[in-house]
Amino acid sequence: MLAGGGARGAYEMGVLAVLAPVLEEQGDQIEIIIGTSIGGINATYLAANAHRPLSEAAKGGAEVWRNLRYRDAMRSLLAPSALIQLLRFVGTFLGLPVKAVSSLLDTTPLRKTINRVIEFERIADNLADEGTPLHAVGVVATSYETGRSIVFHQGGETPPTNEERAIDYVAAQLTSVHVLASGAIPVIFPAVEVGEPASHRGWYGDGGARLNAPLDPALELGAERVIIIGLNSAEVPEDPPVATRPDLFDGAASLLGVLADQLTSDVATLTAINEAVEQDDDTGEADSHKKVPYIFVVPSDRMRIGRIALDVYARHYQSGRAILRFPNLALLGRITDAARNSMHGELYSYLFLAREFIDELIELGRADAQRWLDTEHDQWPWRLEGPTEV
């Protein structure tokens, strides 16, 4: 299960680069892949490359991230359309009769980029090929009309609706449109109109808004073991930002960080189920649940990626010269006031498509995955019980 945001998705490929050789050596195969937010890009990329060894696919995915640039995902902040959008913002603020603004940034180039790096036709081939392990792949988006989580999945039987968590499952032939919808962070990126399947035509936004860790979909589609890769730990950093009155960017970053609590809560629920099954086994009571071994890799604390973004920005993109060489990254840093503190850096990290930052995220993912492997577990490298911290 992959849950990411912006360039932060590079972290996931770093994690898989370390886990893949271990899984291959043990004969474990990835059969079900679920992604939410930017994790949808990684999920469909891995599904389209399921005919290759996982270690090879992860290496290729890391290279895809290393070669991504701002222009591959968003239109320039200096483009005429961006300036017109800025004027519309001002006009809206002044109450003038201007066209509504759909988002802060324009992600029009991203669809072309996704279609270039992901062979969506290969997903169907890999699902049909008995020689590949792929059983199902899904991406999670949030319906603007109903507020429910919609899991667009290709392959596998369609699970029943989960009314308790407001999750609907929809069989679909996945395309770049579903992936874009899954990663459309509200306010920052525009909503995406999904046309297929017709039964769920409508406008969608980021799947992480309601379902940051797609644990339920993975289990409903048949997963018996799960690998969960998250981008926000619930652990409080040792050096939290100085307590000052939060501004609007602190608030936005904090809202995005709330998703970390949901992810950790889901994993805690999984361990509780495993412990309950263990107790039933000890007492001889029948139970329909089975233990679900898991691997759970996240950064050491929730501000880790924000601090990396802040550091890279300060070293490479904060100077006056950087505005001339890298206007989009430098201007975004100033707009979000990225140098103020790690909370601002956290928000900036969702938009920071810089090679230096992506390289550090991949290395962070590798280090956190190795930290998991270096830890003793119930069924190494899998865990059944115990604390959810890594």
TrEMBL record:
<keyword id="KW-0378">Hydrolase</keyword>
<dbReference type="GO" id="GO:0016787">
    <property type="term" value="F:hydrolase activity"/>
</dbReference>
<dbReference type="InterPro" id="IPR002641">
    <property type="entry name" value="PNPLA_dom"/>
</dbReference>
<feature type="short sequence motif" description="DGA/G">
    <location>
        <begin position="206"/>
        <end position="208"/>
    </location>
</feature>
<keyword id="KW-0442">Lipid degradation</keyword>
<feature type="active site" description="Nucleophile">
    <location>
        <position position="37"/>
    </location>
</feature>
<dbReference type="InterPro" id="IPR016035">
    <property type="entry name" value="Acyl_Trfase/lysoPLipase"/>
</dbReference>
<dbReference type="Pfam" id="PF01734">
    <property type="entry name" value="Patatin"/>
</dbReference>
<keyword id="KW-0443">Lipid metabolism</keyword>
<dbReference type="GO" id="GO:0016042">
    <property type="term" value="P:lipid catabolic process"/>
</dbReference>
<dbReference type="InterPro" id="IPR050301">
    <property type="entry name" value="NTE"/>
</dbReference>
<protein>
    <recommendedName>
        <fullName>PNPLA domain-containing protein</fullName>
    </recommendedName>
</protein>
<feature type="domain" description="PNPLA">
    <location>
        <begin position="1"/>
        <end position="219"/>
    </location>
</feature>
<feature type="short sequence motif" description="GXSXG">
    <location>
        <begin position="35"/>
        <end position="39"/>
    </location>
</feature>
<feature type="short sequence motif" description="GXGXXG">
    <location>
        <begin position="4"/>
        <end position="9"/>
    </location>
</feature>
<feature type="active site" description="Proton acceptor">
    <location>
        <position position="206"/>
    </location>
</feature>
